């Protein structure tokens, strides 16, 4: 007897960068003050009005089984939001609610690929992408994007990688780089999907956090609505990370397959949590606006603090909750830099290698603390990098 080879193959071994997180938490448990700039977790809990809606629903008795596809009210609210953000109509029967964007991504991949199919993704990439592709039975084909190009996709390299693949996975605004793909990049990715007859899975969790240019969804482009699956979530937009409300907006045939999978997996989300999500989408625009404004201000703060420093080079962060400076001028690899930064300055960041080879020599900084704390941490981080660079 032996355990599942498929599950054992999800992770490819080695260090993941989470060692920095665990070490920082150990220091905090010992009473040390550590500035955590590692995980995309809001510094404040879910806003009270959303929790009030959740509480009211639960106390009204909505604690039993719910629709596997998601409640009609929540799916209607998601469809309305997705239609506005994507610039193309999305119907409620094209939306499936999932236990967070991560589950939605896994279910969407299962619905569009078969075991052994190749899925193309762009590096730097969210750390779970390769494992999620493998968990769905696929084979990752990872194509690097270059820092000197602002981490925009390399369309020529992608064209080669897409030959014989089944799906293309893209993420803009991008985690970890903060890049927002240009209209030319999105149009190029759509053309690749059409030419190679690919499903295009578009992770748009940060669609409301594009600062310098509009977010463009590939679903809005000609011939793309029938081959695009949008992944969305309330985790970042409404500070609902623990509520696990995500969704896939997909062609109806794919949505139906996702429901078939969910029926045999998690069997739907609690109705009272779905009702809170519906309230957030229908009544919570001010909450999202406040969060968006806070992260834009923090991006501006980070750009000012980390630009034109001898120890750092910062690709312009255009969206999302993160910035990813190049620290190679210090002479350290990213993991060593992160370890020493934690040890000497009590600041925790993620090594770029956690997000793919193209992020090597970079660190990801989550802008998830208050502005005064962030300003102090960024000043100390930049000074730390400058001293290392000067000592070379």
UniProtKB/TrEMBL annotation:
CDD domains: AAT_like (cd00609)
Transmembrane segments: none
An example molecular function term from Gene Ontology annotations: pyridoxal phosphate binding
Cofactor: pyridoxal 5'-phosphate
Gene3D superfamilies to which the protein is assigned, alphabetical: Type I PLP-dependent aspartate aminotransferase-like (Major domain) (3.40.640.10)
UniProt entry tagged with the keyword Transferase: yes
Family: Belongs to the class-I pyridoxal-phosphate-dependent aminotransferase family.
Protein's recorded name: Aminotransferase
Organism: Albimonas donghaensis
């Amino acid at each position: 007897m032996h355990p599942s080879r498929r599950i054992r193959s999800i992770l490819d071994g080695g260090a993941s960068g989470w060692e920095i997180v665990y070490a920082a938490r150990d220091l905090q448990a010992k009473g040390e003050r550590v500035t955590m700039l590692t995980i995309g977790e809001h510094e404040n809990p879910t806003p009270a009005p959303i929790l009030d809606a959740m509480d009211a629903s639960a106390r009204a008795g909505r604690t039993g089984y719910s629709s596997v596809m998601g409640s009609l009210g929540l799916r209607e609210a998601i469809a309305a939001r997705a239609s506005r953000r994507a610039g193309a109509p999305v119907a409620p029967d094209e939306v499936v609610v999932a236990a967070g964007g991560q589950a939605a991504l896994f279910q969407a991949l299962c619905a569009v690929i078969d075991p052994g199919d190749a899925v193309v993704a762009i590096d730097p990439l969210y750390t779970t992408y390769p494992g999620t592709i493998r968990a769905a039975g696929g084979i990752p084909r990872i194509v690097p994007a270059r820092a000197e190009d602002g981490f925009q996709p390399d369309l020529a390299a992608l064209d080669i990688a897409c030959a014989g693949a089944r799906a293309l996975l893209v993420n803009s605004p991008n985690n970890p780089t903060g890049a927002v793909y240009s209209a030319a990049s999105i149009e190029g990715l759509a053309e690749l999907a059409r030419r190679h007859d690919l499903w295009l899975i578009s992770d748009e969790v940060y669609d409301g956090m594009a600062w310098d240019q509009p977010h463009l969804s590939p679903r809005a482009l000609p011939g793309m609505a029938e081959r695009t699956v949008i992944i969305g979530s309330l985790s970042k937009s409404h500070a609902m990370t623990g509520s696990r409300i995500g969704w896939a907006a997909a062609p109806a045939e794919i949505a139906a397959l996702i429901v078939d999978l969910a029926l045999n997996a998690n069997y739907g989300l609690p109705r009272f949590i779905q009702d809170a999500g519906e309230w957030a989408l229908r009544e919570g625009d001010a909450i999202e606006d406040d969060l968006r404004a806070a992260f834009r201000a923090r991006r501006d703060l980070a750009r000012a603090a980390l630009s034109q420093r001898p120890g750092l080079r910062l690709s312009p962060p255009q969206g999302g909750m993160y910035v990813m400076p190049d620290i190679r001028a210090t002479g350290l690899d990213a993991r060593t830099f992160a370890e020493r930064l934690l040890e000497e300055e009590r600041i925790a960041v993620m090594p770029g290698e956690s997000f793919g080879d193209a992020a090597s020599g970079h660190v990801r900084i989550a802008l998830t603390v208050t502005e005064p704390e962030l300003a102090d941490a960024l000043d100390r981080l930049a000074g730390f990098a400058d001293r290392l660079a000067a000592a070379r």
